[in-house]
């Protein structure tokens, strides 16, 4: 775990010191605030519906942030030839992946905290519970973790950062819209395929509405672990190329 801790501190320090990271956070938070004001607060709405719309907007912002923060993590190491140093040091591949993932997840969590003022405004001016806010943010956290895991896996596939970005965005969009894609299938196949959806089924129909389902939590954790494992195995395979 010592190697993981070192990589975690290095990567997190890079995020916190990088003006680009804060520019990305500021742009996404600004866009989130604009859409919140223009769409979620439009007209006379129930507080619960306004909160749902806030989480709807936030899920897109977190998905974009997760991909943008993670697609470069391994590919950049290869382009800078610093991957050779990691491969020749007493650091295991899973420690590299996990350390980078935790650093990106920490910075993503900071972005979530910075957006907390919007649901607080809804609570002050309406009738929603802290439990609804917590469940929605927990869902955003889990969805962001999945996005980061997909981004890291895509980054491990290639040394070209732009290609890693395209692959990560494609995977997240497809996995987040399986529900729509499966609508053309016949039951019971459609029902089975829909359960693999990341957003429509797992977020929109539960976390976004303040509903906490253990099966959705387990699903997100499982998908995150799956893509991190793919990232580790990809790194192991490329170590000897």
Fold blueprint:
Elements: H1 2-17, H2 19-40, H3 47-70, H4 75-79, H5 83-88, H6 93-114, H7 117-125, H8 130-157, H9 161-176, H10 178-182, H11 189-194, H12 200-204, H13 214-239
Helix pairs in contact: 1-6, 2-3, 3-6, 3-7, 3-8, 3-9, 6-8, 6-13, 8-9, 8-13
Helix content: over 70%
Order of helices and strands: HHHHHHHHHHHHH
Biggest beta sheet summary: none
Spatial extent as radius of gyration: 19 Å
Q: Can you tell me the overall shape?
A: globular
Q: Name the average pLDDT.
A: 87
Count of individual domains: 1
Outline the structure in words:
- The protein is mainly α and 241 residues long.
- It has one domain (2-239).
- 79% of the residues lie in helices and 0% in strands.
- The chain has 13 helices and no strands.
- It has helices spanning 2-17, 19-40, 47-70, 75-79, 83-88, 93-114, 117-125, 130-157, 161-176, 178-182, 189-194, 200-204, 214-239.
- α2 packs antiparallel against α3.
- The mean pLDDT is 87.
């Amino acid at each position: 775990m010592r190697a993981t801790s070192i990589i975690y501190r290095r990567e997190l320090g890079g995020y916190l010191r990088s003006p680009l990271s804060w520019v990305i956070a500021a742009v996404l938070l600004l866009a989130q605030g604009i859409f919140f004001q223009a769409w979620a607060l439009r007209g006379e709405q129930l507080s619960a519906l306004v909160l749902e719309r806030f989480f709807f907007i936030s899920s897109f912002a977190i998905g974009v942030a997760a991909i943008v923060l993670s697609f470069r993590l391994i590919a950049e190491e290869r382009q800078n030839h610093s991957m050779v140093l990691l491969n020749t040091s007493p650091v295991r591949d899973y420690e590299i992946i996990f350390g980078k993932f935790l650093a990106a997840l920490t910075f993503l969590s900071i972005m979530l905290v910075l957006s907390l003022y919007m649901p607080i405004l809804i609570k002050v001016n309406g009738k929603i519970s802290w439990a609804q806010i917590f469940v929605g943010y927990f869902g955003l956290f889990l969805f962001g973790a999945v996005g980061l895991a997909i981004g890291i896996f895509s980054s491990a596939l290639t040394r070209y950062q732009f290609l890693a970005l395209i692959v990560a965005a494609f995977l997240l969009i497809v996995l987040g819209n399986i529900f729509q894609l499966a609508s053309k299938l016949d039951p019971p196949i459609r029902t089975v395929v829909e359960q693999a959806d990341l957003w429509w089924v797992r977020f929109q129909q539960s976390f976004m509405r303040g509903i906490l389902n253990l099966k959705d939590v387990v699903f997100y954790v499982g998908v995150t672990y799956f893509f991190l494992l793919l990232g580790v195995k990809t790194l192991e395979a490329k170590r000897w190329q």
